[in-house]
Design brief:
Largest interface: A-B, 24 and 22 residues
Order of helices and strands of chain A: EEEEEEEEEEE
Number of strands of chain A: 11
Number of helices of chain A: 0
Distance between the termini of chain B: 36 Å
Distance between the termini of chain A: 37 Å
Largest sheet of chain A: 6 strands, mixed
Largest sheet of chain B: 7 strands, mixed
Radius of gyration of chain B: 13 Å
Strand content of chain B: over 45%
Oligomer: heterodimer
Radius of gyration of chain A: 13 Å
Helix content of chain A: under 10%
Structural class of chain B: mainly beta
Shape of chain A: globular
Number of helices of chain B: 0
């Protein structure tokens, strides 16, 4: 079983839709949870970072962590064509760092 | 956020030559940096962990003699692809944690290597 599981998609939504991206994990030692956005041929960009269960909001983005279920989500409200990218979840124990495989998102105008 | 740069952003070389890629942390010191490669439409694959002042740690299946890593200072790690072949063509990305203990990673913009 992989440390981090992420549905690769691809996911295609109309502009303005709410997007839900999810990852599950098996290691209860993960303490830090991140979401990265990667545009084609660019390095990943840190979007959201959290270390506790619950929700963290930043503009149109909300990161949700449920440690009891070992499940994290990223919600994108009012999705825009510029949100079209690959979204990677990542988790860390503080000493080891793991990525999901990434979900490819396309927002159609 | 923290800034990590890479140079060059794009390089084309002939088969058999060596290519050096630099990764710099611009506004913080990084005792550890990570090197990844990424093929089109695939996820990041960790190649090695670069440790300042000591040998790099390579992931299983990565040839240490092929991919030479030097972490000579707290702000610079280099990856040298030796005797490059077309199958080494890929997108190489480095990352660094802002502080000791990998709570989050900051990525460079990546280097696209094309070997003819």
């Amino acid at each position: 079983q992989k440390e981090v599981e992420q549905d690769p998609g691809p996911l295609s939504v109309p502009e303005g839709a709410i997007v839900s991206l999810n990852c599950t994990y098996s290691n209860s030692a993960f303490q830090y949870f991140m979401w990265y956005r990667q545009y084609s041929r660019k390095g990943p960009e840190l979007l959201m970072y959290t270390y506790s269960s619950g929700n963290k909001e930043d503009g149109r983005f909300t990161a949700q962590v449920d440690k009891s279920s070992k499940y994290i989500s990223l919600f994108i409200r009012d999705s825009q064509p510029s949100d079209s990218a690959t979204y990677l979840c990542a988790m860390s124990t503080g000493n080891q760092f793991y990525f999901g495989t990434g979900t490819s998102l396309t927002v159609i105008p | 956020g923290a800034v990590v740069s890479q140079h060059p952003s794009w390089v084309i070389c002939k088969s058999g030559t060596s290519v050096k890629i630099e990764c710099r942390s611009l506004d913080f010191q990084a005792t550890t940096m990570f090197w990844y490669r990424q093929f089109p439409k695939q996820s990041l694959m960790l190649m090695a962990t670069s440790n300042e002042g000591s040998k790099a740690t390579y992931e299983q299946g990565v040839e240490k003699d092929k991919f030479l890593i030097n972490h000579a200072s707290l702000t610079l790690s280099t990856l040298t692809v030796t005797s490059a072949h077309p199958e080494d063509s890929s997108f190489y990305i480095c990352s660094a944690p802002r502080r000791r203990g990998a709570d989050t990673q900051y990525f460079g913009p990546g280097t696209r290597l094309t070997v003819l």
